[in-house]
Specification:
Oligomer: single chain
Number of strands: 0
Shape: globular
Order of helices and strands: HHHHHHHHHHHH
Largest sheet: none
Length: about 200
């Protein structure tokens, strides 16, 4: 669902929740695994974000656990398609629970797995979220590194509006050693998993 993805990218989680919850009612019908996996992954990220902001309900954890059980099963069968998704949600849960070191390990695993298998959307979101976690720990140099990587990958993806949004919100971190940050981003041609137009909806 392009609207859900757009709202998640811009951290409009309450708006994304309604569409994702509705989708959850229909996803129980037979559908392609990738579609179900995309939904489970995105729905879990939405629910964790709401819990993180204090707007969520702890009953959301049951849904997240259900989604992760499914993702773990798919990741075992086809790790190149699903393990990075499982790792990103696991990283978000670890960060939510204050397990900083565990979260860092899982974010990096998600980033590396998504990068190696050309899932640019997951790589980019994981980079941005890891940057936010570093900022929450007042580790600005590390946050800047991953924000610059996210910025570069949004540009690679063609999501220029989102890249502009990062530049407006974090001008100091993106300005610092931008060229080196772009190099550190492991830049390569973005995959065709989605189109740039999808990301820049308004």
């Amino acid at each position: 669902n392009a609207r859900v993805q757009f709202n998640v990218l811009y951290a409009r989680y309450e708006e994304a929740l309604q569409d994702a919850a509705e989708m959850d009612e229909h996803i129980k019908k037979p559908m392609g695994t990738m579609l179900v996996a995309d939904h489970c992954h995105t729905y879990s990220l939405i629910l964790i974000a709401l819990l993180r902001s204090g707007k969520g309900r702890w009953r959301y954890m049951a849904i997240i656990r259900r989604n992760q059980r499914k993702m773990r099963k798919w990741a075992r069968a086809c790790p190149e398609n699903f393990k990075h998704r499982y790792d990103l949600v696991a990283a978000e849960l670890a960060a939510l629970r204050g397990r900083f070191r565990e979260a860092l390990k899982l974010y990096r695993a998600a980033i590396d797995g998504a990068h190696e298998n050309s899932f640019v959307s997951v790589e980019t979101m994981a980079c941005e979220r890891l940057a936010h976690v570093y900022l929450s720990e007042n580790q600005r140099p590390e946050a800047g590194l991953y924000l610059r990587r996210a910025y570069q990958r949004y540009l690679d993806w063609g999501a220029t509006a989102k890249a502009d949004d990062l530049r407006e919100r974090y001008p100091d971190l993106l300005a610092a050693d931008h060229n080196n940050g772009a190099t550190a981003a492991h830049t390569h041609t973005a995959s065709s998993e989605s189109t740039p137009q999808t990301l820049d909806l308004s």
